[in-house]
């Protein structure tokens, strides 16, 4: 059996991919503070091996900036703050309950739908 590469091991341990927009509007709305809070909380919760955070350019949701997306759940969060980033880590990434107050869209039934107060676990 072939030995797994570090990259393959990392992919197999990853459970969530978090996209944080640092395009112009989101940066103006302090997305870099959201990014820093997300990194800090992921570290505090010992999720380094399970969560990948990627900075993106504009995701075309500028009026709702800063924008954060969590996959594989497909939840789009709006008007993010550092406090909301901490909640997303503790509630969504750890417990599997998305933060309804900040969720704008979620992927459900093959398409993105406006979020109502439903839990990720209810899929
Ligand atoms: S700059 Fe972030 S959604 Fe446009």
Automatic annotation (TrEMBL):
<keyword id="KW-0411">Iron-sulfur</keyword>
<keyword id="KW-0408">Iron</keyword>
<protein>
    <submittedName>
        <fullName>Ferredoxin</fullName>
    </submittedName>
</protein>
<keyword id="KW-0479">Metal-binding</keyword>
<dbReference type="Pfam" id="PF01257">
    <property type="entry name" value="2Fe-2S_thioredx"/>
</dbReference>
<dbReference type="InterPro" id="IPR036249">
    <property type="entry name" value="Thioredoxin-like_sf"/>
</dbReference>
